[in-house]
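Notes to self after the call with IL:
- keep both proteins in one doc
- input above output, always
- annotate only the second one for now

Protein 1:
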Amino acid sequence: MKEDRIQEIVQHAYANSPAFRERLDGAGGGPEAVKSLADLSQVPVFTKDEAIARQQADPPFGGMLAAPLSAVSHFFFSPGPLYEPGPTEDDHAWGVAVAMLREVGFGAGDVILNSLSYHLVPAGYLFDGAFTRLGATVIPAGTGPTELQLQMARDLGATGFVGTPSFLLGLMQKAAEKGVALKLRRAVTTAEPLPPALRQTLVGQYGLEVINTYATAELGVLAVNSGEGMAMRLLPEPIIQVVDPDTGASVGPGETGEVVVTNDSRLYPLIRFGTGDLAMNIDPRPGESAQAERAIILVGRRGEAVKVRGMFLHPNQLRFAAAQVPGVGAVQAVVTRPDGVRDHLALRVQLAGGADEAAVAEGLKGAVQGVCRVRVDEVGVGPLAADAPPVVDGREWG
């Protein structure tokens, strides 16, 4: 989305969406003041909890719609509960998905096994529309049994797949078990994490090209990873920011914040919509880079993280850091404030058999600081209960 369209988007939403107008008025501003990306910070982040509350008070869309209800082609329903209108023919969610799929090699002649749900949630419908717009043929399998999907993939000559990585693994394992030869060569995964070990299995053992995507029900596809590592390259649209959940201000490179998105929908404008997802911001040229040059590493959800000396520490970050250090059996982070002023971060680690205590302690300190951007003050070695929480906030806020 071009920056010069921001004012047009905001003015349209202000004129047609009662929920957005109320939010902007409540912040003491007006649409004329929001002319650029920098000006968007004047708009308060709109959380999923707020969206749910509005819809419950005024169903179905809580004043968030910016067009007559008759303009909605489909009603979708996501956990929350949260209602979402289906994308329109000119919706950018489809256009962005089509461009991404074309870029990674899909096109006319492909036969796609779509194992995402078509029931209530928009995932199956969104990817179905994007693939057919490319000229591909879609098998709308949805969430059916693995054996049936395997039969369809074989009989119909599926060359591509879209669905969760865990289901894809099960499908490939079942094919190997039954000696079924498939034509699958390229897969789009989404809706759940793709651990490096699982990617390696899909690529190395089954010969697949794996394109992992980050998408939300409300906004469509936002980022993609088609190679190694955890970083996901941002798509050029919609506008994606990584912000401090407490202040709404953009975080710097290497810092963790909430993914906040502004779309370009005239039907259902979501401006500064907080996804609830926490991510590390990767920016190669701060202040100069285009959005498509930046990337994020997803680390978890709001509510699971604690802030330590101004930086978010999430259980998934801790697990990822610990996985880089040989000899770690289990780890727990404990945050305290012994003097009532300064945060103290201690790690409790259970060693795997035969590991060197000093080497593990030093390795963990470096790994946690590298991933979480926060210094470790102390590492203690000892047993941890199987159900021990990964992060403990022991501070007293009085």
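Protein 2 (the one to annotate):
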Amino acid sequence: MDFRDISKMRVTVRQFDQRPVEKEKVDLILEAGRWSPTAVDYQPQRILVLNTPEHLEKVRQFCTFGYDKKYADLTEACDTPDHKHTVFYYGAPLVFLICYDKTACWTHPQNGQSSGSTDATIVTTHMMLEAASLHLGTVWISYFDHDKARELLHIPENYVINGMLYVGYPAADFKPNPKMSGKRYPISHTCFVGSFDTPYETDFFEEGATVTFTPAEQTE
């Protein structure tokens, strides 16, 4: 499969089937992260695999807070029965908590900025695309109670939480959100040549072309 096909096949999934992700697929996703580029090859990423009922209940706890109808409308899984809280855990059977060790990162010699967040994000992206190639659904999560996650999961102080990746087979009735999936600005909207006054123009790709995503493809 062409890389561009994989990147288009990846869509945000918030409805998951409850069957577990096979260990061989978990291994392949982690291996994709292992081979991701990091600054000076320091590899500061630290990934916590959460896939037992006990682990996932903790995820639910630190992903449940406040209330925002905008998010609750994304899926019923985001809403509590009393409509008093929003749940940012969507029932995925596999969660990767992506951290980086702040003592193991490259530091920019001019501005002192750590590479950790960039490194961890690149790792997560590679893992997400590997999951798509395995016909698994994913969603990248950064909106949760980081302090509560640190407490419940006993995360070391020198580990910075970068985000989470939910992974699983999409539910049988899952359909991509038509407002958020399969739509991208043309290249000329986001890419430029020489200066940001000159849009980059290309006629190589058919504008608006997409690879159709269906739950059947994801559950083979």
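Annotation: Residues 207-220 have pLDDT under 50 and may be disordered. The first strand starts at residue 45 and ends at 50.
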